[in-house]
Design goal:
heterodimer, A: 170 residues, seven-stranded mixed beta sheet, 8 helices, 7 strands, B: 418 residues, alpha/beta, 2 domains, five-stranded parallel beta sheet, 18% strand
Chain lengths: 170, 418
Amino acid sequence: MLKGRVHKYGADVNTDAIIPARYLNVSEPAQLTRHCMEDIDRDFVKKVKAGDIIVATTNFGCGSSREHAPLAIKASGVSCIIAQSFARIFFRNAINIGLPLLECAEAVANTGAGDILEIDLSGGKIKNLTKNMSFTATPYPDFMAELISAGGLIEFTRKRLASRRHQSEV
Amino acid sequence: MTLAEKILSAHANQKQVMPGEFITVRVDLILANDITAPIAIREFGQLGLERVFDPQKIVFVPDHFTPAKDIASAEQVKLTQQFAREQGTGYFELGQMGIEHVLLPELGMVLPGDVVIGADSHTCTGGALGAFATGMGSTDIAAAMATGDIWMKVPPTLKFVYRGNIKKWVGGKDLILYTIGDIGVDGALYSAMEFSGPVIDRLSMDGRFTMANMAIEAGAKAGLFPVDAKTIDYVKPRARRAYKVYQPDNDAEYARVMEYDAAKIEPQVSLPHSPANAKPVSQVGDIKIDQVLIGSCTNGRLEDLRIAAGIIKGSKIHPGIRCIIIPGSQQVYLDALKEGLMEIFVSAGAVVTTPTCGPCLGGHMGVLADGECCLATTNRNFVGRMGSPESEVYLANPAVAAASAITGKITSPEEIIK
């Protein structure tokens, strides 16, 4: 169960806003996160607390393929991002590195900055404790659920490689 | 099946694929750059493998912060170079290097029918050659370097048909900016774009690269052009391995078909801070600028430099304007030099740099200060994209950029070349 305070944003939050390219001469999450959301919300780094939740409208994470973006958000302590929709590469990247994402237009529409949410990832259940409302996110397709439960793409690939080795030995 | 579905089904060893289906596809080329490779290499290390699946199918192009702009960037490049050497993968050192999406097609490393994945969002540029080329993250690249394949969700295809007579000074850049202006930055989210029609048939390869390049700016997974005689002419002298041409079926199912009359499309300018804020140049108004950038994976090819030089020839860059020209590869640089284009630029008061992504993403070689305004032939104009969060970027084609460099404000090429 995740619980945290909401940071709310609008549409098309792009990867240049999440982590400006001027900081991409390093790739350690701890270094990147110092500039997380800098060009859209200068105080984000000061405000964010472990467990917090980002809520945004459409096309969150559009732009570059930089994995630095979800890495910076994850390292900031954010436990989950809820949006109406995500840009495709950002979506892959977040799932691959184990940063939970949920698509739920209803939750986005009924959640404001500072609200406290409680999230049960396994069922996609979102509770807005401030407003006393409940929502259900779009369920993940089976394949994605498998990838998530494996712990991300590296763990998933490790298993695939092991099963290939097993097959070639048999 | 659509062109995207044909290529994906062949690479998944399936007779057919359906939009929404999850598949595992073989990849023909994997690429990463100096920003994304270090994370891919770190994640590959987590897998505990000694060797990549096939070094011939992996290539690193250090093009973003090179020539290394600072010590930290130099370390990233060095790490990438060392991994490439150890594994025997492709690596392009300064002198051979170009902007990855200009360089790899030019060298015949992206071919029709390929599945190409790159840790760079503009990997979709390869779609101009009838390949399924798509951007991903570093961890995806790490997994593919280990297994030679990658998971994908089959995208629905949106078809874009362009008819009518194209106006003077209108090119691939204007068609794609107009299209993004029409459908929005998420208008093709999760989808493949397929471009066709008489205007596309007549469009040069360089123009097609520009269009495919910006498919991501509409949220698309890929932007594909069916292969024709022009594609084959481009590919034949370059290819060093076999390739297969796929064509969309006549009864292919498209999620949506959009038709445009090119005769109604003027040169476009996308206003800050979104590529979708596209307007005809005649309606932009009086916008003074501080810098003009002609180059990038979008418009750094020979045709782009020819168009710009044709307008700048015999004029001077406006005093107070920094006009930066970046050829997309060493070959483009050399060809432009032999044609005399570089002399035109330099004698007009522009600067010509080595190939690099540099200023496009606010890296180096032309970063903007507070309150400055740049007209660029690049692909993104988000807040802070080229430097200060208080700066502004306008996107346009090389003709508009060249005309604006002469007048110091956003200008239609018609005002310079009567």
